Amino acid sequence: MKILLHACCGPCTIYPLQKLRKDGHDIRGYFYNPNIHPFTEFQKRLDNFEQYAQKEDLPVIVDSEYELDEFLRQVSFREGDRCRVCYGIRLRKTAQIAKRGKFDAFTTTLLVSPRQKHDLLRDIAVAIGQEIGIPFYYEDFRPGYFEGMLVAKSEEMYRQQYCGCIYSERDRYRAKNQQNKKGQEE
């Protein structure tokens, strides 16, 4: 099948790309991530993805517009449900591009991360695919997560420390700060 692979970053692309190619699919990458904050992080992830794609001879479609304002408008006052909103934003656009490009299906590298809300992600993608009229190709890529991260590390690829949005960045540092305080109290 000709599959459009939504990519959040270079490291998360490694295993899904290898697996999909091994299974005989024709893959094109698609970078669209309006959730990533700050802009410097967005640019690092985009640059890293493009470098990896070039190395792997992966044709790509890149949406380099930094649409953080739009992402924040849609998430505001729904911060507790931000992942649902974020998945919907990114996968809807991926499905639209896939349909317009006459792909057979679309999928996402988000399915490789053990930190993502996997069932929610799959359910949203399937519903969007049905709505737009393009199948969502589901595969649980999580078994290859550590393999992909080892490759990323050996190739000295930039590996981010949080999902991407301002809220996940806040949670990362909040958790670290709380651990430090707890350690100081003991």
In short:
With 186 residues, the chain is of the alpha/beta class.
Key terms:
186 residues, alpha/beta, Rossmann fold, four-stranded parallel β-sheet, 7 helices, 10% strand
What does this structure look like?
The protein contains seven helices and four strands, in the order E-H-E-H-E-H-H-E-H-H-H. It is an alpha/beta fold. It has a single domain (2-185), classed as HUPs (Rossmann fold, 3-Layer(aba) Sandwich). Strands 3-2-1-4 form a four-stranded parallel beta sheet, sandwiched between helices. Strand 1 (2-7), helix 1 (10-22) and strand 2 (26-31) form a beta-alpha-beta unit. The longest helix has 20 residues, at 166-185. The model has no long low-confidence stretch (mean pLDDT 91).
Helix content, binned percent? 40-55%
CATH architecture: 3-Layer(aba) Sandwich
Distance between the termini: 57 Å
Low-confidence stretches: none
The top level CATH class name: Alpha Beta
